[in-house]
Amino acid sequence: MNIKLLELFCCIVEEGSISGAARRSYLSQPSATKSIRYLEEEYGALLFNRDKGSVSLTEVGETLYPHAKAIIHEYYNSREAVRYANERTQSQLKVGASFTLGEYFLPSVISKYIGNARNDDNGNMELFIENTPNILEKLENKEIDVAFVEGKVANDELVKEAIAYDELVLIVGTAHPWSNVPHILTNELKNERLIAREKNSGSREIITEHLEKKGTLQNIASYMELNTTQAIKSAVMSGLGYGFASYYSVEQEIENGLLVRVPIADLTISRPLWCVKKPLNFEKPAVKVFSGMVKDSFGT
Predict the structure, then answer these.
(1) One Pfam family for this entry, by name (predicted)?
(2) What confidence score (pLDDT) does residue 119 get?
């Protein structure tokens, strides 16, 4: 079995056409078509329905696709394992992180990791920062080696470990009326504008869940939605309303007097921060090293 044939098959499925897969694979269309015929001969069945230039999977093709993806991944996984055993070198470590962890916590750990890299570990790393659902999708699709996220990890096939707990705190600007009070109650939240993350954000999800339990969410009529924590911090500093943010993301601003943390007497919002992996027969040694450094950093 030629692994390139399976890669081309998966590429056609993902591109939705033979011509698109041929371009992506740097092949001519006739060559790509001929290769798929070889693969169909190998399996003794048609893999695609062909109709006026478009293709769709047959039932056999639908059956083959997940197996082909797994075979391809295990093939490159085996090469990685042999390479490390033989040469003590490994490919680039690909880390995914949600915005809070990727922007406010991991940079210092990455700096330490690269600085401590031994001669036989090149220390190369690529960091992807997106919201939690997108990062977990990258992990499921094997586009990254490990993910660090907050929020729900619904896929039970992923291996997750809580490495720390984070508190989402209420923040206001220094000129806000709440900046000088010892605390507020949840029913007071309806009187001011809530500046929140987008709806598919892990932070937004857990805040919504807690406010719904308190019966407060439906009474908050004034919203502003922003898609980054930094944007929320800037809006809050400008006096546009109040927001919730990870304590890790606003610690410096609070210490420097740019933002004020306002305790809520009848509400505390905390959440686990997860290290998430796919179960693999061989895990890059760099994954274990870097994950350990992240956990140690939270411990300090």
Answers:
(1) LysR_substrate
(2) 43
Whether the full predicted model's pTM is greater than 0.90, yes or no, is no
Q: Which domain holds residue 236?
A: 165-270
Domain count for the chain: 3
d(C-alpha 134, C-alpha 136), whole Å: 5
What are 281-292's pLDDT values in tens digits? 667 778 888 999
Q: What is the 3-state secondary structure (H, E, C) of 85-132?
A: HHHCCCCCEEEEECHHHHHHCHHHHHHHHHHHCCCCCCCCEEEEECCH
5: left (phi over 0), alpha (psi -120 to 50) or beta: alpha
Reported as a single tens digit per residue, the pLDDT across 148-177 is: 998 788 888 899 999 988 899 999 999 999
Q: Are residues 287 and 139 in the same domain?
A: yes
**Which segments of 143-221 does DSSP mark as H helices, in order?**
202-213
